[in-house]
Specification:
By secondary structure, the chain is of the alpha/beta class. Helices cover about 35% and strands about 15% of the residues. The chain contains ten helices and ten strands. It is globular, with a radius of gyration of 18 Å. The structure holds N-{4-[(3-aminopropyl)amino]butyl}acetamide and zinc ion (ZN).
Amino acid sequence: MLVVTSDDHLAHHALELDSTNLIPSWETPTRVDSVRRAVAPDHRFVGPGELDVSLLHAIHDGEYLAFMAGVWDRWVAEEAGPAAMGVAWPARRFDQGRRPTALRGLLGYHGFAADCSVVGGTWSAALASAALAQTAAELVAGGERAMFALCRPPGHHATRDQFGGYCYLNNAGVAVEVFRRSGVERVAVLDIDYHHGNGTQDIFYERDDVLVCSIHADPAFEFPYFCGHASETGHGAGEGYNRNEPLPAGTELAEWLTAVDRCVDAIRDAGCGAVVVSTGVDTFEADPISQFLLRTDDYPVVGARIADMGLPTVFVLEGGYAVDALGDNVAGVLNGFEAASA
Ligand code: Q9C
Ligand code: ZN
């Protein structure tokens, strides 16, 4: 399969709030090296095309995009700390609609978590990452059976107007929009990352042309804590087009696969014409921030399940923080897919 990748992520190395300190983010540049090394023997690398900014405007708020484009320069001018992030967020009974003017206020308005900050290389990396997803979807829309976008930073936590969870632009959402514009009437998102894909859910929640399915750690005990329950099924025209499969800590392959299979059935029943797979492998047993127990040998099994849907498929990288095993786990998904497609 073709793998879309570039070096434009390298200057993005954010900080995150640990229990007491700002530490280097778990979401590191070395993750890309791990994946490239593991997929190189069986797959071919291609570079991205030019980003179509209208795709970003289709899934993100214009004020958010403008703010993010300038936030680092403004931070350097006003604060000059090592990483820009919020300190207060619009919590219960706060005014959700009014946008503050101060930089710190805007960082809270356009962010939702202290695990995620902006540094000098962040925005250019986020734009480049979105371009990878765009290119992968364009090539699949043009006839490739499947592509893998080696996206960094990841995207599935980024909402219409907020960054968080190491995500700034919703790369899976970009791929969805490319498919829609190419004439696919209904697109599926299958999000197998350990964390709930709250951003993708947010963006498509009121739409019936995009079925979003996410299998993840129950938000009762895991990030993003306030989103990802089974009762969130869509709204308005989108009612019935959002599916959440929250699972307990300690989940192993057998139980996890039953949730995947329920999503695969939903994607079939909805008559989707293409699928975007939010490919996080932080479900891995040795992942340093996660509590599922999948093994390296398990990933080809899910790759095969995805292939069995028989749909044009774009894989976009999301999480996975056991850097040494990350590449093998991602390669397992892709190789299992190809073996089952052959
Ligand atoms: N001490 C993705 O996998 N914060 N994002 C973890 C760990 C949330 C993960 C804090 C992790 C978000 C794309
Ligand atoms: Zn994750």
